[in-house]
Amino acid sequence: MPTFDVVSKISYQELNNALSNCLREINTRYDFKGLNITIEFKEKEKEIITLAPDNMKLKQINDLFTGHLVRRKIDPRIIKVKGVEEATGNSKRQTIELQEGIDQESAKKIITQIKASKIKVQVKIQGDELRVDGKKRDDLQETMQLITGIDIGRPVEFTNFRD
After folding, report:
1. pLDDT per residue over 52-101, tens digit each?
2. Dihedrals φ, ψ of 148, to 5°?
3. What CATH number is attached to the domain comprising 139?
4. d(CA 10, CA 128)
5. Taking the complete model, does pTM exceed 0.90, yes or no?
6. Same structural domain, 21 and 79
7. CA dihedral defined by 102, 104, 105, 109, rounded to 10 degrees?
8. Which of 78, 87, 30 shows the shortest CA–CA distance to 58?
């Protein structure tokens, strides 16, 4: 029976490349010269912490980082920018959360859309991914197109296609 998995994963190698390119550009830009600007990636917490002197610089850094993500072919919907908070030394700190996996609400939304379309497939939630089973390959391909059209706020990928 043909199957495939629906996942939302982050390529950490490409993320590190985008982060280091962004830091390199910050160090060479004239408008950031002499300012205490840092970007720190915490892999365990799956978050990026930016530190800048004011809100305008924080916004510039976030825009710069988003641009570098796009250049490395990473969908910018994987990041969720949280609010600005005060940090030491009269500076501002902002946390950027990385979103990985398909949460329960999004999984249920995808399943209801598939059931409403009357495509003859079965969908199972397996942790933070979905497994789609069907008898025909055409049904699975139609399901892939349907899932691509659903906006869940993060990118989805199709892996482990078995015929």
Report:
1. 999 999 999 999 999 999 999 999 999 999 989 988 888 999 999 999 88
2. -60, -35
3. 3.30.70.860
4. 13
5. no
6. yes
7. 70
8. 87
Strands (E), the chain: 3-7, 38-42, 47-52, 79-87, 91-98, 121-126, 129-134, 157-162
Domain boundary among 68, 98, 128: 98
Q: Do 81 and 135 have their domain in common?
A: no
Whether 93 and 77 map to the same domain: the answer is yes
Number of domains in the chain: 2
70 and 22 in a single domain? The answer is yes
Distance CA 147, CA 18 (A): 28
Query: According to DSSP H, which parts of 54-134 are helical?
Result: 55-71, 104-116
Is residue 144 exposed (0-12), middle (13-18) or buried (19+ Cβ within 10 Å)?
A: middle
Instruction: Give the C-alpha distances (Å, rounded to integers) separating 94 from 32, 47, 49, 69.
Output: 17, 10, 6, 18
Looking at 98, 117, 148, the residue that finishes a domain is 98
110 and 157, same domain (yes or no) = yes
Neighbours of 162 (CB within 10 A): 10
**Residue 90: per-residue pLDDT:** 85
